[in-house]
Specification:
The complex is a heterodimer of chains A (about 190) and B (about 140).
Chain A: E1 5-13, E2 18-26, E3 29-34, E4 40-44, E5 48-56, E6 59-66, E7 71-77, H1 79-93, E8 98-100, E9 109-115, E10 118-123, E11 126-132, E12 136-142, E13 146-151, E14 163-171
Chain B: H1 3-7, E1 31-33, E2 38-43, E3 46-51, E4 55-62, E5 68-74, E6 95-104, H2 107-135
Antiparallel strand pairs in B: 1-2, 2-3, 4-5, 5-6
The chains are: A mainly beta (about 190), B alpha+beta (about 140).
């Protein structure tokens, strides 16, 4: 087994924003360290249940979904990193990353998909955004058709970020059949 | 309207055709792309584009701790809104993003963003309704 790959300038994304750091992919799993110390994320390869790649402007984003439902997003991979990491993940973990596309049409209507802790908003078959329900402090039903999600105020992930997401709400029309009865609260 | 804008039919609301058309994001902050008539929102580490025609209102507010808040409300079915969006009828049963709210540490940036969105939205709406009128 090779001793892994090291990538500089990989940022970890969260609700509050992103943090730059260094990512190491090795036989035991994935290790990310924040630039200048502090926060670190260590993922054991046996805990990884899914990997995704998404092209974002000028770079690539790796999504790592782990057993307990958490989902990490690392941004900053070059196109050539994607293919070398695909080979590496395949050989060392037996996982082949799935490719996702970012919705760029600018539409605000689509579908909501719930998977583990993640809520994805899809436009067409493309992903507009994903939010982690673990960060949601409160949900509220507003009127008959609107669901509001409020996020924890957390200064650790985005301490150096200017704009951080606080609330998001979805409108679910009566004619929508995806969520009926008790399930209409994502 | 310019030739580029005129070529875009109101029935196909498309902010970007290719991922590489998106502006580079140095910081994860709200951006307004006037050329492509889009706003870009930092949601979980990704800049997510929304066409300005999907925006209904935008407002900002400041609290006592010098935090600034921006609230963007999008068009959803069932509310009286501008009929220029030809897609509205087709997509009535889809789930819609209705509202997002961000906190910012930079009030100047927020007031600039609010102004830019308002102006851009007004210009796009004026152009679209003018075109609709001409078509009838």
């Amino acid at each position: 087994m090779t001793d892994g790959h090291l990538f500089n300038n990989i940022s970890l994304g969260g609700r509050g924003g992103t943090n730059p750091g260094q990512l190491k992919v090795q036989s035991g799993g994935i290790l990310w360290k924040k630039q200048g110390g502090g926060k670190a994320v260590e993922v054991d390869k046996d805990d990884i249940v899914g990997l995704t790649w998404m092209k974002v402007p000028r770079t690539n984003q790796l999504g790592v979904r782990i057993k307990d439902g958490l989902y990490y997003k690392f941004t900053g991979f070059r196109d050539q990193d994607v293919s070398s990491l695909n080979t590496y993940f395949q050989n060392s973990c037996g996982l082949s990353p799935e490719e996702k596309q970012l919705s760029i049409s600018g539409k605000n209507w689509g579908e909501v998909d719930l998977n583990g802790n993640m809520l994805s908003f899809l436009v067409g078959s493309k992903q507009a955004f994903e939010i982690s329900l673990a960060d949601v402090s409160q949900t509220q039903l507003q009127g008959k058709n609107d669901v509001m999600l409020e996020f924890h105020v957390d200064d650790t992930t985005g301490a150096n970020e200017k704009d951080s997401l606080m609330e998001i709400s979805f409108h679910i029309p009566n004619s929508n059949t995806q969520f009926v009865g008790d399930e209409n609260r994502p | 309207g310019n030739s580029r804008g005129a070529a875009k039919a109101s029935s196909d609301l498309v902010a970007y055709k290719s991922i590489n058309d998106l502006p580079p994001s140095r910081d994860m902050i709200i951006q307004v792309d006037q050329k492509n008539e889009a706003i870009l929102l930092p949601i979980y580490g990704t800049m997510v584009p929304f066409h300005v025609a999907t925006v209904k209102t935008v407002s900002s507010q400041q609290d006592t701790n010098r935090n600034c808040y921006i609230r963007i409300i999008f068009n959803v079915p069932g509310t009286p809104f501008t009929p220029v969006d030809a897609n509205a009828v087709k997509n009535q049963s889809s789930i819609h993003l209705k509202e997002v709210s961000f906190r910012s540490k930079d009030p100047r940036h927020i007031s600039e963003v609010v102004q830019l969105i308002k102006t851009l939205r007004r210009n796009v709406m004026a152009r679209e309704s003018e075109r609709a009128e001409r078509a009838t």
